[in-house]
Amino acid sequence: KQVVNGVKFFIHCQKEENYVTKIMSCHGVLNRVEDHETLRSVTCADGSRSTIRFKYPEPISHHNRAKHWVDDTNNRRHDP
Question: What is the per-residue DSSP string for 44-62?
Answer without folding.
Answer: -TTS-EEEEEEEEEHHHHH
